[in-house]
Amino acid sequence: MDNSLTVKASIEQIVERITDAVMEHRLPPGSKLAEDKLASAFNVSRTKIRQAFILLANEGLITLHANRGAFVTSPTTEQTRDIFKTRRLIEPEIIREVTAKATAQDLARLRKHLKEESKARHADDRRKVIRLSGEFHLLLAELGGNQVINKIMMELCPLTCLIIALYDGPKITACPEDEHSQIVDAIENKDPATAIKLMKRHLSHIEDELNLDAYQKREIHWEAIYS
Amino acid sequence: MDNSLTVKASIEQIVERITDAVMEHRLPPGSKLAEDKLASAFNVSRTKIRQAFILLANEGLITLHANRGAFVTSPTTEQTRDIFKTRRLIEPEIIREVTAKATAQDLARLRKHLKEESKARHADDRRKVIRLSGEFHLLLAELGGNQVINKIMMELCPLTCLIIALYDGPKITACPEDEHSQIVDAIENKDPATAIKLMKRHLSHIEDELNLDAYQKREIHWEAIYS
DNA sequence: AACACAATAATTGTATACAATATTATTAAC
DNA sequence: GTTAATAATATTGTATACAATTATTGTGTT
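YS: structure for the whole thing
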């Protein structure tokens, strides 16, 4: 199953595996990513790990500190605000496109994804639920057909997962199931206005449920230790 | 002035210099970027050049062919359509933000930029005109204050310059001067509706003036030579 | 002269060696 | 016992060496 030790990984694969780990909250914000460790884990040289780091840092998923290494990013409240604002701007356009051009096959893919989400939810696999929730939005972006917008979403979704890891309580699972399925319903009914309204509301729900001073509390806690 | 041979360049500097060269059409689409040549030009090892390539490829400005190297991208008509669609989606939001929050200092920066554009135009410095035209939109994005949107624009503007290099005739200079200044006027008048309308029209003007089958013609020309 | 094939050169892909910097451990002073 | 300074260790940053691949040149055949 896990061929990371025997087969050499490409840069894209390394980026994907690290992205998945961040999306599933296996790598929490602030985690140090040591080049040597990853190099042996993926059975490649540090050169490739560094190349992967450059891409991950460009996406904002990790932050590079000069001479100190790579750390999983801890998005600020400002970044959070900007990300959700951008998603509320872009995703309605995705919905518009998908509603206009979705084939029966596309809808089947969406339905299949909803089922997987539901299964993970009932199995109480929180990590999988968070990742699949993000991937629902990515699937919509893919079906939308605009490659530029798709690429933007491929960056914003993992960042959103990171934010949920930071600011969400351990109990709340992001993206309530019915909201996703309602959006698909509206798309199937060729009702873009409703679908867009639901999507905007959905994104606002996620943002509103974030505990945006959780991180600052931690920061204060840090300083309190040294005082 | 040119310290590329004496001082070692950072990855960001290398990326910026290559981006500028592409934006000013000094590196036309299809150009081969040899690692060795650039390494000695920037007085660094190939390692750094490759790292810069990874970023440039991620932005879509260059395309990496396995074992064959890096080439300045030749955007397809589909990519062109997607890029302009995305810009028409994002830039109105930028205008909204800028109109709402622009300070006197911000407006002064915009006016100063318009002057520079005008100067380059009257000096018939076509390369500078194209680069400054793109940078006008980047300045707006910066003033908008949304870092995520700003980063998106930092990728879309150089790509747009590339497209103009490919599909624009040699005579037409992109972004007529008055369109930019009219947008700034509307911003100054706190009239977002007009500013957005002008921006959308402006983007459509640029797209409409592109000769979107120019590239295909070239391809046919190539084959014609060998027949 | 045109084409196919082989040898050579050039270029890219990857790992590793070395230098620079940061982190940790140790020792000494207070 | 705590702090400061210093030595040892570990980690990152960069260049280079070598392997793999592609491009080019040269040679022989038809």
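YS: worth flagging: The mean pLDDT of chain A is 88.
IM: good catch. Also Residues 34-36, 46, 50, 66-69 of chain A lie near DNA strand D (CB under 10 Å from a C1').
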